[in-house]
Design brief:
This protein has six helices and 15 strands. By secondary structure, the chain is an alpha/beta fold. It folds into two domains: 8-184, Hexapeptide repeat proteins (UDP N-Acetylglucosamine Acyltransferase, domain 1, 3 Solenoid); 204-248, no CATH class. Strands 3-6-9-12-14-15 form a six-stranded mixed beta sheet. Strands 1-4-7-10-13 form a five-stranded parallel beta sheet. The longest helix has 21 residues, at 205-225. 35% of the residues are buried.
């Protein structure tokens, strides 16, 4: 996994304002609603939260933990996004809309990651050590998704809206459902590709399995009885379910 972590030296070398310009250019690429860099700089709370985190992280790494937490809580009150100063955030991370995003103390987020509103990178342990997720480069996490515990999500993966991920996933995975199920991509995403933001193109693995079983049952009944049973729910036709038990 190609996760690049920001150190004090990296941030100093890149420069705060250079990283701000980089973030604005990245937002222009990933948000079709954005009309100008000035609009993004003034009106995008997701980037405001990331920029505040650069300051709080700088303080945190120099032992000024109380001022660092104060900056992070100030940013939380203004943007609705909570990023702990201890979290390690890569370059060009874009939080779209952002309200309700929570990133815990030991979370690690790689470069070019996109987070939508309501995302939680949370811990599941009282252990003081690593207890939050590691997110690889170029991962997209859909609205309302929760990634919990000290797990690693491989680079170029996509997490569906409202998924709850509690186990690690390899690179180029699509993760859906509660608890999250791993689906291998048929067309892998590469670092040189455009950002993968289509977090609505997600397979319903359980519905596909049920549909396959129902189709097999219909086929077996037809072969044994000459017809399928009229009183059970049949596999959907053109994605629409039909059956006498549905009272709508």
């Amino acid at each position: 996994m190609e996760t690049t972590l920001p150190t004090p030296q990296t941030l100093s070398r890149l420069g705060f304002f250079a990283s701000v310009r980089e973030d604005i250019a990245s937002a222009l690429q990933r948000d079709p609603a954005a009309r100008s860099g000035l609009e993004i700089a003034l009106l995008y709370p997701g980037l405001h939260a990331v920029w505040a985190h650069k300051i709080s992280r700088w303080l945190w790494l120099r032992g000024a933990t109380l001022p660092a937490r104060w900056v992070s809580q100030l940013a939380r009150g203004i943007t609705g996004i909570e990023i702990h100063p201890g979290a390690q955030i890569g370059r060009r991370v874009f939080i779209d809309h952002g309200m309700g995003v929570v990133i815990g103390e030991t979370a690690i987020v790689g470069d070019d990651v996109t987070l939508y509103h309501g995302v939680t990178l949370g811990g599941t342990s009282l252990n003081k050590g690593k207890r939050h997720p590691t997110i690889g480069d170029r991962v997209t996490i859909g609205a309302g998704a929760k990634v919990l515990g000290n797990i690693t999500i491989g680079a170029d993966s996509r997490i569906g809206a409202n998924a709850v991920i509690v186990k690690p996933a390899p690179e180029n995975s699509v993760l859906v459902g509660v608890p999250g199920q791993i689906v291998r991509r048929s067309q892998p995403h590469h670092a040189s590709d455009a950002p993968d933001l289509n977090h609505a193109a997600l397979p319903d693995v359980f519905a596909a399995a049920i549909q396959d079983l129902m189709t097999r049952v219909d086929d077996l009944e037809t072969r044994v009885q000459g017809h399928s049973h009229p009183h059970h729910i049949h596999a959907p036709v053109q994605d629409a379910w039909d059956g006498i038990e549905f009272m709508i």
